[in-house]
Amino acid sequence: MATPQKKTHTKRLLVGLGGALALLVLALLVLGGRGGPEGTAVEAMPAEVRTITQTVTASGKVRPEIEVKMSSDVSGEIVFLAVQEGDRVEQGQLLVQIQPDFYAAQREQAQAGLLQAQSDAARAEAELRRAEEDLARKRALAERGVIAAQELEAAQTQFDVAKASYESAQYRARSSRASLNQASDQLRKTSIYAPMSGTVSQLNVELGERVVGTSQMTGTEIMRIAELDRMELEVDINENDIVNIAAGDSARIEVDAYPQEPFQGLVTQIANSARVSGLGTQEEVTNFPVKIKILGTAGAVPVRPAADTTTEAVPREEGIALTGGRVLRPGMSGTVDIYTETVENAVVVPIQAVTVRDFNQLPAAEDAGETTPPPRGPRAEDLRRVVFVMRDGKAEMVEVSTGISDDTHIEVLSGLTGGETVITGPFRVLRTELEPGEAVYVEEEPAAGPRGPARS
């Protein structure tokens, strides 16, 4: 029978053998893992030669191209309201009637004042004519020496007074005529007519409500009339992007109400003055309003700017038909992609493939493409745009100059010709760790095998 000491010794021996076996297995696994590719695992894509289009994206509101805000020129109570919101109106149609009694009384008063002034002017004219005849007689008698000089002077003075009175009466008559015209104009403005044909897009008053005329202050906005068959999208473009946009650029518009049905667009107006929000704060933003005319449905294919940027105007009567029968209402939200520039046969690479390196911090000047040794002493940063190209399993740094870009790719103006294998990631490796001449390999994602039966 085994003693307790022998059992303890045997147990320790077994534990030691198990630990050694585990270390052996771990060493085999480590040594076996060294059989893979050497270098840094990277992601890569080929440089392409294709057409690239630069876009500027912004959001805004749908609004009519033409919308007239109507206010009353006179104050008073609305006694007649002929329309409701959404009604179609024709140019010259009577829309609103303001209580005219007060303005009619003013017109009658002005007309009476004009008649009185005309009567005074006629009397002054008769007195002037009589004074002129009396002066002529006194002048003839004075020449024959029949009357004294004082009588001739008195006749002259009377003529001058009569002439001044006549001119004053004429001025009063003209003033009364102007007052009558003003009163007539005020009375005429109590009737408000449609300035154009369109749809009442907004109605702000009710029958019996009192309005304030614009002749006194800002006035009450009564309604708005718009051409709803000619719509546009107004967006705010940042000052950094506004320099890339020009009138005539084509666009692709997506209205939130119709997310699957994009519309074609055309830039028609770019503001010269900016809208600044958060002035004087860290959140200060400078934007420029831009108007994009909505032309019609674009389908599933994005709009591309043609060589000729001229676009025929949309006929007014066909505006609704060109939007595919979809109703666009003022105030709807939308997003636009403005196509600012297109380059054909351009060498393009993914945006993330272009990085920036300080050429003064490179480990060797010859690796950076420099032919002269760098000067000694501290130097300023020499930041340049570069891409890393895979050649013979190594990363070669190539300095490039870039052009326009879209959402995913950027144009390379110099440095690449197309077809090169460009390293695109990982971001951390490409941004700071990857060095010229470093061994690299493309990390392939494992293929997805067939799934086995689910375990219970």
Characteristics of this structure?
456 residues; alpha+beta; Elongation Factor Tu (Ef-tu), domain 3; OB fold (Dihydrolipoamide Acetyltransferase, E2P); 4 domains; 6-stranded antiparallel β-barrel; 6 helices; elongated; disordered C terminus
CATH architecture of the largest domain: Beta Barrel
Percent helix range? 25-40%
Give the neighbour order of strands across the main sheet.
Answer: 2-11-15-13-12-16
Supply Rg.
45 Å
Structural class: alpha+beta
Write down the domain tally: 4
Q: Sum up the overall morphology in one term.
A: elongated
Stated plainly, the CATH topology of the largest domain is called Elongation Factor Tu (Ef-tu), domain 3
Biggest beta sheet summary: 6 strands, antiparallel, barrel
CATH superfamily of the largest domain: Efflux pump adaptor protein, beta barrel domain
What order do the helices and strands come in, and which of them pair?
Blueprint: H1 4-33, E1 40-46, E2 48-64, E3 67-71, E4 76-81, E5 88-89, E6 94-98, H2 101-144, H3 149-188, E7 191-193, E8 198-203, E9 210-211, E10 221-226, E11 231-238, H4 239-242, E12 250-255, E13 263-270, E14 275-277, E15 285-297, H5 319-322, E16 333-350, E17 355-358, E18 383-391, E19 394-399, E20 401-405, E21 409-414, E22 421-425, H6 427-433, E23 440-442
Helix pairs in contact: 2-3
